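Quick check before the chapter quiz. The format below is the same one you will see on the exam, so make sure you can read both the input and the output lines.
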Amino acid sequence: MAYAQSEESDSERLSELSPAEAARLLNESPWASQLTVTRVVGGFGSGVCGEKEIFSRCFVRMVSAQPVRKAYLAIREDLRQQALGELEET
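Here is the expected output.
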């Protein structure tokens, strides 16, 4: 997905992000990278030699980038709208 177009079209596009597009921008864009950290832990009852691997997945995001900030705002606004909808139902 190409996010880097002209400045004017970027601003228009980012102001109309859906929650799915915002999540994709936060997880699969030039401003985000996924890392998997593996560590080996020894202990009783795990693995062949008493070891097991623990995998931790995290995302590194350039939160200073305008598209990332706008994606966070789009998701926050969506969550706010969902919460307001739930309050109205009760």
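If your answer matched, good. The chain has a mean pLDDT of 80.
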